[in-house]
Amino acid sequence: MKTLRYIIVLICTVTLFTACNTSKTKDSGKVEYQCPMKCEGSKVYLEEGSCPVCKMDLQPTTKIVKKVLSNIISDKSIFNLTSKWNTQNGTEIQLEELKGKTLVMVMIYTTCKAACPRLTADMRNIDAKIPTELKEDVEFVLVSIDPKNDTPERLKEFAEENFLTDKNWTLLQGTESGVREFANVLAVKYKQISPLDFSHSNIISVFNPNGELVHQQEGLGVDNKETITKIIETIKSY
């Protein structure tokens, strides 16, 4: 009788193991490829190649297993900066807490009437062109160069006014010294010319998940195709 029970248990175990293997095989089925700009809408291809419309490399639509990030921070990483920042939600963080995502960062101030609204619109435009399945791997960060006036409360209002309320948007208020240090890393120049007005560089920067600068876009309303391509390449390489 014991022998019979043993055989039944063994058969059940083998059956469950086989079912699990079958499930894994199914989940890892054929890889489909799609234009990252979605020039042809939802059309997919079964082989690698380039988009017949914009000529960009087709990207896999299936989720790619991410590499394990190193705990070692290189000398070129912004995560070496120890300054503290307040988010639009009133949470205090250090830049290292953003580790693990591709970062798209820009420096602005909320009372700006000229360049900053354009920079913010450029950031939204870039966000809109990132494939949906990759959005959880990218963080859009706006850093204020006016920490005196851009309180967390004001940054939250600015986020709502400019439709920056998705979870992958972070707005930061730092200290005067922290902002200056961060601007030097990005090669962003700024100067206060009145209590509520600054002159400043118009640069959008892309960092890999280890905090290393991989791309910069300078200017207002420029063609952002190269920036979007670099963001997607960076996400997929980690």
Automatic annotation (TrEMBL):
Q: Which CDD domains match?
A: SCO
Binding positions (Cu cation):
C112, C116, H200
Top-level division of the source organism's lineage? Bacteria
Q: What UniProt keywords apply to this chain's record, in alphabetical order? A: Copper, Disulfide bond, Metal-binding, Signal
Q: Name one GO molecular function term.
A: metal ion binding
| PROSITE patterns per UniProt | PROKAR_LIPOPROTEIN (PS51257), THIOREDOXIN_2 (PS51352)
Residue ranges constituting the Thioredoxin domain according to the UniProt record? 72-237
Taken from the UniProt record, the cysteine pairs bridged by disulfide bonds within this chain are: C112-C116
Record's signal peptide: 1-19
Q: Which family does it belong to?
A: Belongs to the SCO1/2 family.
The entry's protein name is Photosynthetic protein synthase I
Identify the species of origin.
Polaribacter atrinae
